[in-house]
């Protein structure tokens, strides 16, 4: 196992362990955990050797912070709408954004769309989907990786 993969594994296990200590709510915990893992995966795409390790750590930290902030501000129903929009965008036969909006709060809405062509990564066919959230007038964004499994694009 390479140093980068070991570091990514340690980050993933640490994030899971630390998420059990989180007391601010499931949405923030889930957002931070998923954001951290996505950030680590994104960081692993850059550099080599020690440089890649640094990119993985920085990506994980940035993703955890961004994911935690988004998760904290979306209620469960809105988070599910946002996740569904990202899944629909990944599986759409035509390019373009998939929009969603909150049923409770007019100032909470967003969209998702693929931002990279599908390519083989570590033996899987994968692509990135960007989700943009508008939360009380503030724009936030995150990118998630989706891979083809059993004929459907699923979040990796």
Supply database-style keywords:
156 residues; alpha+beta; 6 strands; globular; Gly_zipper_2TM_dom
Number of continuous helical runs: 4
Helix/strand class? alpha+beta
Q: Identify low-pLDDT runs.
A: 11-30
Helix-strand sequence = HHHHEEEEEE
The largest sheet is: 6 strands, antiparallel
What is the average of the pLDDT values? 76
Model description:
Its main location: membrane. Keywords: Lipoprotein, Signal. Residues 31-71 form the Glycine zipper 2TM domain. The protein is α+β, with helices and mostly antiparallel strands. It has two domains: 3-73, no CATH class; 76-155. Helices cover 48% and strands 27% of the residues. Strands 1, 2, 3, 4, 5 and 6 form a six-stranded antiparallel β-sheet that branches. Helix 1 packs antiparallel against helix 2. It is globular. The two termini are 20 Å apart. The model is unreliable at 11-30 (pLDDT under 50).
Topology of this structure?
Elements lengths: L2 H17 L6 H18 L6 H24 L2 H16 L6 E4 L6 E7 L4 E3 L2 E12 L2 E12 L2 E4 L1
Antiparallel strand pairs: 1-2, 2-4, 3-4, 4-5, 5-6
């Amino acid at each position: 196992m390479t140093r980068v993969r070991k570091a990514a594994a340690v980050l993933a296990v640490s994030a899971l362990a630390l998420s059990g200590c989180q007391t601010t709510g499931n949405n923030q915990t889930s957002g931070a955990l998923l954001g951290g893992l996505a950030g680590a995966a994104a960081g692993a795409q850059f550099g080599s050797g020690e440089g890649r390790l640094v990119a993985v750590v920085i990506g994980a930290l940035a993703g955890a912070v961004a994911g935690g902030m988004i998760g904290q501000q979306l209620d469960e129903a809105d988070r599910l709408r946002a996740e569904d929009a990202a899944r629909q965008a990944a599986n759409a036969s035509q390019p373009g954004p998939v929009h969603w909006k909150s049923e409770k709060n007019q100032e909470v809405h967003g969209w998702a769309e693929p931002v990279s062509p599908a390519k083989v990564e570590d033996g899987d066919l994968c692509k990135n989907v960007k989700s943009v959230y508008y939360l009380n007038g503030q724009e936030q964004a995150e990118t998630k990786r989706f891979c083809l499994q059993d004929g459907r694009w699923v979040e990796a």
